[in-house]
């Protein structure tokens, strides 16, 4: 028996409520910690941008909750397009800033760079502004072209622009994005596993007592968020693009998978709750639950 619309909406409301509460708490806590950090650090700059993109998306979540609760959109079709597109913008910008952190730590591990810092705060601000301008330049045309331009949509409904998938160019863009996301994720997963194994082989004694090993586990957390939050949507998207029929239950399955991408907003909260120390040597070092459990087992300090 297929789930009813009320069950789908209950699932979506639950997911977005958890995302909104947890995301806001994480943003607030990390924001206080960032004030004390060196803003010249590339890692710190990446996390500042991560806080910004999470905050922008979280500001749109109440509109989604209102729509799922009332089953009516009262804010106009143009704003619906913006709110609908924001979850995609959030997903890909979050993915991008995760990669910045992973690339920075990989360069430091392989000693290609002793440290990665901007020379001045102005340079850090300029690089962030450039990324956001580029994102806007790319996102706005896509919103205009790919959202609600070829199909017929009612003003009282929202988040259902699936008729655009009948356009072959939209399908091609989706396949291209999926290929890039999956390929990059697999590459960084393999890289992080390689780095961790290399660290373990060259360390003596309990590996959890070494800062270097804990730091690499912390990097693996970013990869895990990508795998758990972003890949399910993209893998389902392949099936969805091939089997989509207007008005089918696949639309709701797609919405559920898309809502899972928003769970990445809980990354900052998870770092706060699971880490004993967040900042070390002008860079953000996040502790994760496996680290804490392992260190308890060996009797080593967690921080």
From TrEMBL:
Q: What is its main location?
A: membrane
Positions of the G-protein coupled receptors family 1 profile domain: 26-239
SUPFAM superfamilies per UniProt: Family A G protein-coupled receptor-like (SSF81321)
| Superkingdom as given in the UniProt entry | Eukaryota
Output the PANTHER family linked to this UniProt entry: G-PROTEIN COUPLED RECEPTOR, G-PROTEIN COUPLED RECEPTOR 141-RELATED
Q: Which gene encodes it?
A: GPR141
Instruction: Give UniProt keywords alphabetically.
Output: G-protein coupled receptor, Membrane, Receptor, Transducer, Transmembrane, Transmembrane helix
Give the stretches traversing the membrane: 6-35, 47-69, 89-110, 122-143, 175-200, 220-240, 252-273
What membrane topology term does the record carry?
A: Multi-pass membrane protein
- One Pfam family from the UniProt entry? 7tm_1
Q: Any idea what this protein is called?
A: Probable G-protein coupled receptor 141
Localization, per the record, is: Membrane
Matching InterPro entries: GP183-like, GPCR_Rhodpsn, GPCR_Rhodpsn_7TM
């Amino acid at each position: 028996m297929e789930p009813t619309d009320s069950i789908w909406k209950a699932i979506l409301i639950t997911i977005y409520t958890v995302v909104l509460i947890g995301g806001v708490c994480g943003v607030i806590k990390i924001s206080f910690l960032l004030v004390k950090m060196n803003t010249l650090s590339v890692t710190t700059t990446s996390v500042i941008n991560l806080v910004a993109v999470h905050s922008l998306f979280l500001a749109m979540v109440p509109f989604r909750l209102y729509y799922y609760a009332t089953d009516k959109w009262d804010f106009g079709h143009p704003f619906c397009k913006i709110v609908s597109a924001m979850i995609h913008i959030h997903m890909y910008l979050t993915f991008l800033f995760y990669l910045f952190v992973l690339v920075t730590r990989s360069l430091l591990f392989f000693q290609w760079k002793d440290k990665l810092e901007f020379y001045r705060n102005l340079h850090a601000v300029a690089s962030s502004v450039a990324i956001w301008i580029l994102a806007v330049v790319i996102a706005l045309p896509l919103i205009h072209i790919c959202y609600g331009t070829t199909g017929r949509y009612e003003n009282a409904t929202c988040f259902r622009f699936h008729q655009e998938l009948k356009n072959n160019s939209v399908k091609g863009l989706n396949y291209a994005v999926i290929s890039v996301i999956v390929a990059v994720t697999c590459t960084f997963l393999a890289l992080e596993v390689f780095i961790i194994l290399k660290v373990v082989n060259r360390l003596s004694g309990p590996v959890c007592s070494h800062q270097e090993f804990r730091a690499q586990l912390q990097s693996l957390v970013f990869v895990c968020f990508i795998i758990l939050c972003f890949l399910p949507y993209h893998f389902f998207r392949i099936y969805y693009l091939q089997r989509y029929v207007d008005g089918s239950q696949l639309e709701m399955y797609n919405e559920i998978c898309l809502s899972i991408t928003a769970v990445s907003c809980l990354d900052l909260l998870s770092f706060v709750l699971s880490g004993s120390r967040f900042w070390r040597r002008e860079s953000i070092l996040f502790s994760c639950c496996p680290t804490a459990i392992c260190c308890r087992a060996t009797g080593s300090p967690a921080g």
